[in-house]
Prior knowledge:
It is a single chain. The protein is α+β, with helices and mostly antiparallel strands and 181 residues long. The protein folds into 2 domains: 1-19 and 28-103, Roll (2,3-Dihydroxybiphenyl 1,2-Dioxygenase, domain 1); 115-181, 2,3-Dihydroxybiphenyl 1,2-Dioxygenase, domain 1. 15% of the residues lie in helices and 30% in strands. It is built from 3 helices and 11 strands; from the N terminus they run βββαβαβββαββββ. The chain has helices at residues 41-50, 65-71, 125-134; strands spanning 2-3, 9-10, 33-37, 55-57, 78-85, 92-99, 117-121, 138-139, 147-150, 156-163, 169-175. The strands form 3 sheets. Strands 7, 8, 9, 10 and 11 form a 5-stranded mixed β-sheet that branches. A 4-stranded mixed β-sheet has the order 3-6-5-4, covered by helices on one side. The radius of gyration is 19 Å and the shape is globular.
Amino acid sequence: MLKDPDGHFVEMFQPASSGEAPSPNAPDVTAVRVRLTVDDASQAMRLYQQLGLPGTLDSSFTSNPTVMRMFGLPAEAQYRVANMTVPASGLILEFIEFKGVDRRAVRSNIQDPGSTRIQLQVRDIEAAITQLKAAGGSVISTGGATVDLPGRGGAVTKTSIVRDPNNLFLVLLQTAPPRNP
């Protein structure tokens, strides 16, 4: 576990060898997961399931001194994780909740170093905004509404940035089909 220049923690691990030597041109990074610490993993999972992301939750808390040592936390601390799959991307978004340690919420602004944004293309941006607001999220785009950006082929891309209840900034995009000439 290390911290990047913007204060994000980066967890690296090497899985057990399959016995086959990788090709000389094989990349060092073989998988990506984004893990966000949340107040309530179950609540975060339900919200993102409403947005269409499938996921699973370890409903009970786990105590693993080795994992806690990696996190730099006391051995007696506990955690549970919700794993969400972002369709068509290969990205796994994990929400981790800790218990048995001091926790404090950190509220950053989108322009602050270390703030995290994830871009999601949605079918119905207004419905997504409504779901996020009902869960305690807030639209931070100017005017608290969607913004129309020029898209491909003259189409309009409706966009909005919403801060979810755990301070994750979601850049929501709804693209329209290209206009016929």
